[in-house]
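Here is the promised in-class demo. Please do not try to memorize the tokens; focus on the logic of going from shape to residues.
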């Protein structure tokens, strides 16, 4: 077995460290060869572990910018790109979460609505030409009916009233989703199931707002 004292003297050779470890160094150098060999093995293991730790730290942290080390917390804010218009065909509950069956349509207004109504043959003629009735036109899309999860804190805004539900006082009356489900599912008392709605989703595609669209 190679000598332990030269290794220790080399590792602890600079003056401040040598003074600090002088007592331990004297003990090691006066041990039997078998004891020195065991200590040498342990020292080599410790050195290898230290080297491995330094390499891991360098690869993990030193070569990556600080922005990669900490997760970025983002707030999911609904915007116009997450706003859909269409009809709700049903509301269901699966595994404790509410879901809408939603068919997307387009709500057109102004000259765009007029052009679509003329193409569909439903425009109303007057002295200024042929226009969409009441200034809007609802146009179908090729987008398939989707099942969309509703956030537990979703807001509901109603635009029309119903004598059977005096708690609704439109325009822009807010109700809970549980209340909305009650009169939506009844279907026959008021035509809320036939009303079109704007739904707004967050970045996780959960519905955070449902707003009834008033139709003249």
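The designed amino acids, position by position:
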């Amino acid at each position: 077995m190679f000598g332990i004292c030269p290794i220790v003297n080399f590792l602890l050779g600079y003056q401040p460290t040598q003074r600090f470890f002088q007592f331990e160094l004297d003990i090691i150098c006066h041990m039997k060869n078998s004891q020195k060999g065991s200590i040498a093995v342990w020292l080599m293991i410790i050195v290898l572990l230290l080297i491995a730790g330094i390499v891991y730290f360098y690869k993990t942290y030193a070569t990556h910018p600080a922005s990669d080390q900490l997760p970025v917390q983002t707030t999911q804010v609904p915007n116009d790109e997450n706003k859909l218009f269409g009809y709700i065909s049903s509301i269901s509950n699966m595994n404790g979460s509410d879901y809408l069956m939603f068919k997307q349509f387009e709500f057109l207004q102004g000259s765009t609505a007029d052009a679509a109504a003329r193409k569909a043959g439903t425009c109303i003629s007057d002295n200024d030409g042929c226009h969409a009735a009441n200034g809007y036109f609802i146009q179908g899309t090729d987008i398939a009916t989707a099942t969309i999860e509703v956030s537990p804190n979703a807001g509901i805004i109603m635009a029309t009233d119903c004598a059977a539900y005096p708690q609704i006082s439109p325009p822009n009356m807010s109700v809970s989703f549980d209340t909305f489900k009650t009169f939506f599912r009844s279907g026959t008392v008021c035509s809320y199931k036939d009303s079109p709605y704007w739904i707004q989703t967050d970045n996780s595609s959960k519905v955070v707002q449902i707003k009834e669209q008033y139709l003249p």
